[in-house]
Amino acid sequence: MSRNSLGYRFKISSFGESHGKAIGVLIDGCPAGLDLNLDAIQKQLNRRKPGQSELTTSRDESEEFEILSGVFDNKTTGAPICITIPNTGAKSSDYEAIKDVYRPGHADFTYDQKYHIRDYRGGGRSSARITAAWVAAGNIAEQYLQQVSKIEVVAWVDRIYNIKSNVDTAFVTRDLVDESAVRCPDKNAASLMADAILVAKNEGDSLGGTIACVIRNCPAGLGEPVFGKIQAEIGHAILNLNAVKGIEFGDGFESSKRKGSENNDSFVNQDGHIATTTNHSGGMLGGISNGESIFFKVAFKPTSSIKKQQQTVDTSGNQIPLNIEGRHDPCVLPRAVPIIEALTALVMADLFLENQTARLK
Amino acid sequence: MSRNSLGYRFKISSFGESHGKAIGVLIDGCPAGLDLNLDAIQKQLNRRKPGQSELTTSRDESEEFEILSGVFDNKTTGAPICITIPNTGAKSSDYEAIKDVYRPGHADFTYDQKYHIRDYRGGGRSSARITAAWVAAGNIAEQYLQQVSKIEVVAWVDRIYNIKSNVDTAFVTRDLVDESAVRCPDKNAASLMADAILVAKNEGDSLGGTIACVIRNCPAGLGEPVFGKIQAEIGHAILNLNAVKGIEFGDGFESSKRKGSENNDSFVNQDGHIATTTNHSGGMLGGISNGESIFFKVAFKPTSSIKKQQQTVDTSGNQIPLNIEGRHDPCVLPRAVPIIEALTALVMADLFLENQTARLK
Amino acid sequence: MSRNSLGYRFKISSFGESHGKAIGVLIDGCPAGLDLNLDAIQKQLNRRKPGQSELTTSRDESEEFEILSGVFDNKTTGAPICITIPNTGAKSSDYEAIKDVYRPGHADFTYDQKYHIRDYRGGGRSSARITAAWVAAGNIAEQYLQQVSKIEVVAWVDRIYNIKSNVDTAFVTRDLVDESAVRCPDKNAASLMADAILVAKNEGDSLGGTIACVIRNCPAGLGEPVFGKIQAEIGHAILNLNAVKGIEFGDGFESSKRKGSENNDSFVNQDGHIATTTNHSGGMLGGISNGESIFFKVAFKPTSSIKKQQQTVDTSGNQIPLNIEGRHDPCVLPRAVPIIEALTALVMADLFLENQTARLK
Amino acid sequence: MSRNSLGYRFKISSFGESHGKAIGVLIDGCPAGLDLNLDAIQKQLNRRKPGQSELTTSRDESEEFEILSGVFDNKTTGAPICITIPNTGAKSSDYEAIKDVYRPGHADFTYDQKYHIRDYRGGGRSSARITAAWVAAGNIAEQYLQQVSKIEVVAWVDRIYNIKSNVDTAFVTRDLVDESAVRCPDKNAASLMADAILVAKNEGDSLGGTIACVIRNCPAGLGEPVFGKIQAEIGHAILNLNAVKGIEFGDGFESSKRKGSENNDSFVNQDGHIATTTNHSGGMLGGISNGESIFFKVAFKPTSSIKKQQQTVDTSGNQIPLNIEGRHDPCVLPRAVPIIEALTALVMADLFLENQTARLK
C-alpha cells in the first residue's frame, strides 16, 4: 500500500498541496447504498475551518467541497469517492519571502533532503491544509458507522499548555465541546485556556497541549491481531497528523507506574453481559475492543510558526534570523478536534469492515 | 495488506501460537546479496529468551531458529526468508485449568468475541511468545541496515514503576545495557529496579515502566509523507507489541507543555552540515528524519498475569476467583528491549528501502 | 491494495463514472524530479479520443486534463499526482431510455446484482470512458521510463475480425501505426480493416480483433517472482480493460502446439552479450525479462453496443426487444491502442521501480 | 503487497526453493471456524505429485504437509495458517553439473541478471516444486468455498500438442478427469494424448497444450471493478504459473473473430431467474460474475527441460552444448490440473470474501 493512503478496507488516499489548485481525498471501499448527508460533512469541515475565532489563524478558506465520483442520487454506489476542496484562500505571496529558508519545526529542510525539490508555497504537501479533505472523508466513515452500528466518536481539548480540564467521557458530546471556542467542555478550564492562547498570540508565540478522544458503544471484537491492533491502527493514523508527538491509550503512561494488581480490569457479569469493573485499558485487550469505551490522549507540540524572531539557516547554509509573517494558529488544538475525530472514524470504519469476515457465520 | 504483516518493502508476516508446533516469520523484500550472520540473530534471541535471570519467567525455550528458505551459502537470494522456532518449552497442561476462564488483562475474552473459537493454550496467538520470531527478523533488518548505512538502534529500560534512570542517548550501547539483568544502563537505577521487581515478584504482583530507544546516524530523508511518517510507522509497529499503552517521540508529552519559542529546534550550519542546536523533535520534521538522533519512549503496563488472587468470570458468565499458576514475568521490560530494537530496525529497513526510489537520481 | 488501483510502486487509483462531474486518476509513487511534458500526455489522450474518424463513436469529449497536485514548476515533487478530466460530452438523456434495461454484453445486470444500486448513465463506472485517465497516467509512466531507461512501448491493431496483418515488431513505431485511422501499420490490411468496420457499422453491428504490443530495449531483470511475473502483471492490467477476453505472450497459444525442442530459445554469446537465437518466449524467462523484446497479443470481443435489435430483459424481469441508440464505436480497437500502451507502460514503470531494490549494490 | 503473495482477503504468501529444507505457504485471511478436512488436502497434493505414472517425472516427493499454525482442534482459528512440505526427494547432485550453465527456457539467466546470486539447485525459487504448497492452500480455499457456497471448480487437460478433446463443461467432474493418467475426460483423446507424450518422452522431447477450467454455481456479483475484474484476478494468478503463455475467457480469441450480434449473450427470464441464452462471455460481464458458468483455457508451452542436446552458453559466456540429465516431465499438463484448480479456488475465495462488504445489507 502506498504511504499516502490510510486503511485497507475503508481506505483513503490523500492528495494536494497547500497552494495547489485543490486538495482532496479518494475514498475506496465505502460500501454501496450508504445515504450521504452532505450537510454533516460540511459541519465537520466548518469545525476545522480557519478563521473561526480570534484563537485561530485568519486564513480564509471557503472549504466548499465537491464530490466528483462514487455518489449517485445521494447514495454511495460502491465506486471510489473523489472529493476535492479548492485552495481559494491561498496567498502564495506570503511565502516567496521564505522559499529559500528552512523554518524551524517545519518540513522544509527534510523535504529538500528527501526529494531535492520542494513546493515551498505554504508548506506544500507538508501543510495541515490537506487535513481538510481527511475531515470530509472521516465524516463519511462516521456516517457509515452510524448506519451500521451505534459507535460514536467525540474528541475535545483536554489540556492547553499547563491548563488541565476535567471531563466525563461517558457524557461528553460535540455540542458540549463546541460551547467554547477552544473546544474544551470544562468551562472553567476553557476560559483559562482561551486566555493563555491569547497571551501567547500577543507574544508572537504558540502553545501545545493534549486532545482526548472517546469511542463509545463500540462492540467487542474490533481490531486485528497481530499487526492491526486497535491501538496500533489508531496510533498510526493519528501520529501522521502534523504536530502530534505522542499518544497513549487508556491510562497510558500512568498505567506504566502501577502494579498489575492495581491496573488489571476485573471482569464481571452485569445482567448477562460481560463487562469490566474498571477501564484502565481503555476498552481494548490484545488489541481487540472489549465492549467498554475506548479512549486515548494525543500530545501536540506548540505550533512551529511563531512571530518571535528565530535563528535558522537558508538553503545555501547561511545562518540568518527569521521573522515569520503570514497567518498562523497560536494553538492548533481547537481546530484539530474534528481531525482527530475524522482519523478515528476512518480507522473504526476500516476495522468494522475487516471484522465482517473474521469468522464463518 | 494483511494485518499479520508489518512493512511494505521489508515486510514480515508473523505466524504461530504459543503452544502450536512452531512460531515463525516470513520475510519478504529483503534484497539479495546480504551476508547473513546467524550468530548475531541468535544473540538477540537470547536477549529476549525466558529464564535469563530471576527477574524473568522460568519458561524454558530453546529458541533455536531454523531458516527454511531464501538463504543460500549464507547469503540472501531475494526469495522470501521463512524462519521457524519450535515451541519446545510449551507446557499446555498449565493452561487446561484456565481454558474456560477470562483472565483479566488478557485477550481471552476478546478473541472469543471476535472469532467464536480460541486456542487457549498459553494465550495462543495473543501470546508474546510470537515476538521471538520478530526478533530474528528484526536482526536481519538490522544486518541489512548495517551493510547499507551506519544506522544503529539501541533500546534500554528507562523506568520501572516509579524508578527513573538517567542515560546519555549519544553513548549508550547494547553492551552497556546488558551490564544489568534489568537492562538499564544507569547502574544505580538498575539496582533499585531489580529490587523493585523482586519485591513485586514475591508479592505475586507485577510492574510496568518505560523503554527508551535511540536511532543514531540515521541519514536525513527517511520517512514517507503523508501516512508513512517515521513516527507513525514506528508508533504503529510498537503499539502492536503486547502490554504497550503509549509512545512519545522526542520530548513527546513534555513538549506539549511548552511554548513554540521553547520547543522549536533552531537550524545551524556546523562546518557545512545543517544541524539543529537542540533536538526536542527527536530527529524528525514533517515525519521525515532530519539527520539528528531519533528517540522515543514506550509505556508498558504491568504484566497482566499475576499470582495474587483476582476476580473474573468464566466463559459461561459465572463470577469466580482466579489464581493464575504457571511461569510469568513479574516485569516484561528487560526482555522487551530486543523486541523494541527489532521492530525499530524493521521499520527503518522498510523506510530505507522505500526511500531508494523517492527521486530520480 | 484496493481493486480500483493498479501497481505497487508506480501506482494508479482510478475514479469516476461516464456521466459524473469528472473522471480521473491518482498517481502515487512517481519519483520526484521527473520533467513533465504535458503535450505528450495530450497527444496520447487525443489518440484515444472519440470522434477521430468515421471508424469511431461520434461522442465528443474535449479530453482536456487538469493536474491538481504533485507537480510544481513542471516537475514531479514526489507527492501524489491527481489528474481529472471533465465529462463535458456526457449526454445523460441518451441513457434515460435504458435505465431499466439490462443491455447484453454490458455490466448493467452484474452491477445491480453486486451493489443493488447502479449509476446507469452511460454505463457509469463500467464505461470505457474512465480509461482516458489511464492514458494520461500511462503517459507519465512512459515519460518516467524514458528518463531512466531506453524502454519503449508500441501497440497496434494486429487483426480485425478475420483480417490479419503482418508487422515487423523490431521497427514498428507509433508514427507508422498512426498512418491509418484503424491503427494498423500494414497498409493493405489497414485498408481492408477499415472497409470491414464500415460495413459492420452500416449493418448496425460491430467487430472484434486483436491488438499486438511490443516492449523494446527492456533490460534483463524486470519482473518479480513469484506472483509478480512480468506476464502476470501485464496480463492482470490488460485483462481489466473493457472487452478484453484473452492475452498471450510470445508465441502464446501457438507455442502450446510445439515440442520443447522447437520452442526453446537457445542462448548465444553475441559479442559479449548473452542473447537468444529465437524469441518464442516473448522476452521473458521465469517471469523476468531476459533482454529480448517483450511482445504479446490481446483479444477483444466485438463492441457490445450495437444498433441491431437484440432480445433482453428489463430490471423487472420482463423480456423485451432492445434498440440501442446513442453513439458507439463499431470497433473499439483503433482507440484501444493507446490504452494498451498506457497499461503496459504503467506495469513497466512499476516493475522498473520494484527492481531498484532487488539486490544490494 | 509483496510479489510473493497472491490475494487480498484470502491471501497466500509463497516461500521455499526446490532443494531447500522445505517449501511452504502462509495463508492469511481464512475466516475462523472452518472445518478442515486434511485428507482432501492430501488428495489434491497427490494429484500434483511427481511419479504418478509413466507420463510424469520420476522425482519422488513424499508430499507430506505439516500445518504449523492457525488450526486448533481441526478448525481454523482466524490466525495465519503456515503449511510446510519438506523437500525429501531433492537430489542436489543432479544439478551440480549445470550450476554454471544457462538452460534454455529456464530462469537461470534471468535470476542471475536480477539478483547476481542464484540458488541453482533444481531451479531454486523458480522451480514448479513450490506449487505443491499452492495446491494445499488452494484446497483450503476450496473447503472454504464449499462451506459458504455451492461454487465448484474443475479443470482438465483440453489439448496436448495437436490432439484436441471434446468435454461437456456442465457435467465434467474430477473423478471423470482422473479416469485417465493424462487427466483428459474425453477417453479417445486421452488415449491419443498419452501416446503422444510417450513418443515425445522417448525422443527426449516434450509437449505443451491447453488446460480448461470451469467454475460452476458461482453466484452473480463476484469480481471487483475496476482493477479486480474476475478475469484479471484469475488471469493474474494463472499467468504466474510456470510454463503458462496465455489465457482466454469464455470464447476468448475466437470471440474476437465475431460480430457483436453473434457474440452478445441475450438475457432471458427463466422462471423468475435472469439468465443468458448463450454463454460466449464465460460467465462474466464488466468483470463481475453473472451467474452463468465461468470458464477459461490456459496455454502451456512444452517443458523446457528436454534430454535432446541443445545449444546454450555458460555463466562465463562460453557457448556449449547442453545435455540435461535428471528427472523431468515430458508434459506438465496432467500434474498442472490440480494447480489450476488451486489457483482458481484461491481467487474465488478472495473475491467471495471481498464481496461480503460490497454493499450495506
What does this structure look like?
Four copies of one chain form a homotetramer. With 361 residues, chain A is an alpha+beta fold. Chain A has a single domain, classed as Chorismate synthase, AroC fold (4-Layer Sandwich). Helix content of chain A is 28%, strand content 22%. A five-stranded antiparallel β-sheet of chain A has the order 1-2-3-7-4, covered by helices on one side. In chain A, helix 1 (38-48) packs across helix 4, helix 4 packs across helix 10 (333-355) and helix 7 (230-239) packs antiparallel against helix 10 (333-355). Chain A is globular. The model of chain A has no long low-confidence stretch (mean pLDDT 95). Chains in contact: A-B, A-C, A-D, B-C, B-D, C-D. Chains A and B meet through strand 1, helix 3, helix 7, strand 11 and helix 8 of A and strand 1, helix 3, helix 7, strand 11 and helix 8 of B.
CATH superfamily of chain A: Chorismate synthase AroC
Count of structural domains of chain A? 1
Q: What's the overall average pLDDT of chain A, rounded?
A: 95
- Report the total helices of chain A: 10
Alpha carbon gyration radius of chain A: 21 Å
* Annotated CATH topology of chain A: Chorismate synthase, AroC fold
Assembly state: homotetramer
Main-sheet strand order of chain A equals 1-2-3-7-4
> What structural class should be given to the helix and strand makeup of chain A?
alpha+beta
What is the end-to-end distance of chain A? 29 Å
Give the percentage of residues in beta strands of chain A. Answer: 15-25%
- Following the backbone from N to C, one meets helices and strands of chain A in this order, namely EEEHEEEEHHHEEHHEHEHHEEEEEEEH
The greatest inter-chain interface is formed by: A-B, 112 and 113 residues
CATH architecture of chain A: 4-Layer Sandwich
Described by strand count, sense and barrel closure, the largest sheet of chain A is: 5 strands, antiparallel
Can you tell me the CATH class of chain A?
Alpha Beta
User: Can you tell me the residue ranges of chain A where pLDDT is under 50 for at least 5 consecutive residues?
Assistant: none
What level of helicity do the residues of chain A show?
25-40%
- How many strands appear in the DSSP assignment of chain A? 18
Overall geometry of chain A comes to globular
